[in-house]
Design brief:
Keywords: Coiled coil
Biased composition (Basic and acidic residues): 328-343
Helix content: 40-55%
Oligomer: single chain
Number of helices: 11
Strand content: under 5%
Shape: flat
Region (Disordered): 260-280, 314-343
Distance between the termini: 118 Å
Structural class: mainly alpha
Radius of gyration: 49 Å
Coiled coil: 1-32
């Protein structure tokens, strides 16, 4: 038998062994399921007999039915991105789709809220007379509180500001998508309720022109029915003035003094540094105002001292800062002048 045939035989035996093991596992699982069904059937029968004997008994030893799956989570309410009526409508759809019992609806709502909303509802429960636990709140009490706190009319100014300031077409957005987005954003603005279109246009144009975050926050806190164009101007002025006064109170109204570093007392025009260096420097060969490298006598030979590149020796009148330049000898006869060799 070749090696290939031996390998095939070995693989066949392993496959048959795996099939036998799988069959044994399946039989064992079926046996366990049958045993569990017998146990549950006996428990249910005994529970029914006890309920027949004692109809007032409400708690069964073993539940006959169990919930098929756990209730999934639901997104928390965010007042900055969604109005309360829209959120409540979606939550009601979620409750019906997941078969949430009526007695558990309040608890499901509470467990899916942010810490801020949960704290507000907890404070609502403690303000009750007598005070109660947050888990004792009914769904009607929760809905009433949320309507009062997150009334759409409280955010109408903000919604219209978002609508007017976000009307530009986004990159890659088709005209159909732009029209659908504008139509969707307009649904939260309640434009049909506008009674004075001119005042509304003036107010909205003014609010969109305000570039102060603190002023916008103050305007957004006012109800739409209480904010006309004149009131909007008044609120913005008061808020901006209050912020200015607070800033001056904290940091002071006077500016910090600036230390003077240096000031030249010369009234004439400032000299160019490079120009002054080139004009003030004298040639050590001839004493004229040019560089020694540009001196016409740099190759000439002095007849008196026999030094190349020297035409006349310039000596200072004072002896405090005598300078000896390289390339010449200091002469003792100051009256003599070295003349260049014309050769």
């Amino acid at each position: 038998m070749t090696e290939t045939e031996q390998l095939i035989t070995l693989l066949r035996e392993q496959l048959e062994q795996q099939q036998r093991q799988h069959k044994e596992d399946m039989e064992q699982q079926m046996h366990q399921m049958e045993m569990m069904m017998k146990v549950f059937s006996g428990a249910a029968a005994s529970a029914r007999e006890e309920s027949y004997d004692d109809p007032s008994a409400s708690n069964l030893r073993f539940p006959i039915t169990t919930q098929a799956a756990a209730i999934p989570s639901f997104v928390a309410f965010d007042a900055t991105s969604e109005l309360w009526p829209d959120y409540w409508s979606r939550f009601c759809t979620f409750v019906v789709a997941n078969s949430v019992p009526e007695q558990r609806k309040a608890q499901v709502f509470l467990t899916n809220q942010t810490a801020t909303v949960y704290k507000q509802l907890a404070n609502l429960a403690t303000r009750q007379n007598p005070p109660k636990d947050i888990n004792s709140l009914t769904m009607d009490e929760i809905v009433k509180f949320m309507k009062e706190q997150f009334d759409p009319k409280l955010f109408m100014v903000r919604e219209r500001f978002k609508f007017c300031s976000d009307m530009k077409r986004k990159p890659g957005e088709t005209l159909q998508e732009l029209g659908a987005r504008i139509r969707q954003d307009a649904a939260t603005c309640d434009f049909p309720s506008i009674k004075n279109p001119q005042d509304e246009a003036l107010r909205q144009r003014f609010i969109c022109s305000v570039n102060n975050e603190a002023v916008l926050e103050a305007l957004f806190k006012i109800k739409d029915t209480e904010l006309d164009f004149a009131r909007a101007v008044q609120v913005t002025i008061e808020t901006e003035d209050a912020a200015k006064v607070a800033n001056e109170t904290v940091y002071g109204s006077k500016t910090m003094p600036v230390n003077k570093v240096h000031q030249n007392k010369t009234t004439g025009p400032r000299k160019n540094h490079k120009q002054s260096n080139s004009t003030d420097r004298k040639c050590y060969r001839c004493g004229k105002a040019h560089k020694a490298t540009d001196c016409p006598y740099k190759e000439a030979k002095c007849r008196y001292c026999d030094v190349t590149g020297q035409w006349k020796l310039q000596k200072k009148a004072t002896s405090e800062s005598r300078t000896t330049f390289p390339g010449f000898r200091e002469e003792s006869h100051e009256s003599r002048a070295c003349q260049s060799d014309p050769r």
